[in-house]
Specification:
alpha+beta; WD40_rpt; POC1 centriolar protein homolog B; WD40_repeat_dom_sf; 2 helices; five-stranded mixed beta sheet; cytoplasm
């Protein structure tokens, strides 16, 4: 089926972040790589060796998740500053801010058609948003502790979420109900995702294990215990045949899911590895760690043409399709442990093909908005003022701003800047007040609607009773 070529190799490394790299994602057109960091900055790296890198400044807390939209025209990022931002990954692009949750946002994910966003937060909620109108839609609220991750299924009909309540939950986006809960996780669950066909989910947690479940039969298919510390993230290969995992034990592991075994252990990061992701074509993957480095690897170990496989995955949208070769895993849910035969790869990071790219900084413009002493260490973040849009029920508010290169920023007197900052703070208070009032109004409207529905049912029942009584009287008179 697939022919083995050679071992994975380190292609490039990227330096530009000043703190741990927490997340990464490849663009659909295979030309860029987005990474987020605890230094609060979003980086867009060009995969062209001569291309420039873009640094986007705007978040005021650690970035926890980044993802390109399916068409590649947008990048979304989540942060511990309780916001989600939509970026345009080009010079002088625009950014839109969602004040999404009441606590740090751990994860954000596009739906398959790019029209929805799902976010997960330490406020124990999962929220769904519309991208086009940039509005809040609804919340999913059955988790009892911090929610670490939430992902759409490939067909967009399901959402998988996990968290510190030691559960993985499956939600139906149509009914907005939890349709299944996996509790055999053994600890806090840090990451969850669907395979390419949407028939399985994998989850990882603080107990150093990775589990794969068949969501059609609700059975545990595979259980891997190959890391010596917690697993922070993982990524399915587009074919569904392989999986890479990033761990606090400073390694990246590559698993062969068809054979059910560990095939490679990659060393290269100095410290915990926090992110690992395959490219859309599967020929590259990237890893990021606490050493502030981004390593770009070439897959090499499989030459199968996945275009036909991916076409079949996209065409199989029924909830219970016929079995497919790439969905068949080992029949029994046995434990897979580290094997001595797995190949250890320890590349020398300094011996990569290209040097560090030139970095162009992008950021909010016009006036100083907030100084982040912890992450920026004295660097002033600038934000363009604008009219705040009225928040929908359940959201705290949204603001929109344009971003420009740092050299285009203008300076204003300190007194004027302080006054503007005070005004913005007061507007934030007003926005939160309006959000609370609108939420209470929506609850009142729901109760009123429920009362009207009950009244309508009573009227229908009364009319039916009258009809039955009239029928009885007519029958009695005819007798």
């Amino acid at each position: 089926m697939a022919s083995v070529l050679e071992d994975p190799s380190l292609e490039r490394h990227f330096k530009g972040h000043k703190d741990a790299v927490t997340c990464a994602d490849f663009s659909p057109n295979h030309s860029q790589l987005a990474t987020g960091s605890a230094d609060t900055n979003l980086m867009i790296w060009s995969l062209n060796p001569k291309g420039k890198a873009l640094r986007f400044v705007g978040h005021r807390g650690d970035i926890t998740c980044v993802q390109f939209s399916p068409c590649g025209s947008l990048v979304v990022s989540a942060s511990k500053d309780k916001t989600v931002r939509l970026w345009t990954p080009r010079f002088n692009g625009e950014s839109t801010v969602f004040k999404a949750h009441m606590a740090p946002v751990r994860c954000v994910n596009f739906s398959h058609n790019g029209q929805r966003l799902v976010t997960a937060s330490d406020d124990k909620s999962v929220k769904v948003w519309t991208v086009h109108r940039q509005r809040f839609l609804y919340s999913l609220n059955q988790h009892t502790n911090w929610v670490r991750c939430a992902r759409f299924s490939p067909d967009g009909r399901l959402i998988a979420s996990c968290g510190d309540d030691k559960t993985v939950r499956l939600w139906d986006t149509g009914t907005r109900q939890c349709i299944n809960t996996f509790t055999d996780c053994g600890g806090s669950v840090t990451f969850v995702d669907f395979n390419a066909s949407g028939t399985c989910i994998a989850s990882t947690g603080s107990n150093n294990t990775l589990k794969i479940w068949d969501i059609r039969t609700n059975k545990l298919l595979q259980h891997y215990q190959v890391h010596s510390a917690g697993i922070n993230s993982f990524s399915f290969h587009p074919s569904g045949n392989y999986l890479i995992s990033a761990s606090t034990d400073s390694t990246v592991k590559i698993l062969d899911l068809l054979e059910g075994r560990l095939i490679y252990t990659l060393h290269g990061h100095k410290g915990p590895v926090l992110a690992a992701t395959f490219s859309r074509r599967g020929d590259l993957f990237a890893s990021g760690g606490s050493d502030s480095q981004v390593l770009l690897w070439r897959t090499n170990f499989d030459s199968f043409n996945y275009k036909e496989v991916l076409k079949k995955h996209r065409s199989r949208v029924e909830p219970e399709p016929a079995p497919h070769l790439n969905d068949i895993f080992p029949r029994s849910p046995h434990l897979h442990t580290t094997q001595a035969s797995s190949i250890q790869i320890s590349p020398t990071v300094a011996d990569t093909q290209t040097g560090d790219p030139h970095i162009v900084e992008m950021g909010p413009a016009l006036f100083p908005y907030m100084q982040d002493h912890e992450s920026h260490r004295g660097k002033v973040q600038r934000s363009r003022g604008g009219s705040e849009s009225r928040p929908a029920p359940g959201e705290e508010g949204q603001t929109t701003s344009r971003t420009y290169a740092l050299e285009e920023r203008s300076s204003l007197p300190n007194g004027f800047s302080a006054t503007l900052e005070h005004i913005v703070q007061q507007l934030d208070v007003l926005t939160q007040t309006v959000a609370v009032l609108e939420e209470r109004l929506s609850l009142t409207e729901d109760k009123l609607r429920e009362c009207l529905d009950n009244q309508a049912r009573l009227v229908v029942q009364a009319s039916r009773a009258e009809e039955r009584a009239a029928d009885s009287e007519s029958q009695a008179s005819s007798m």
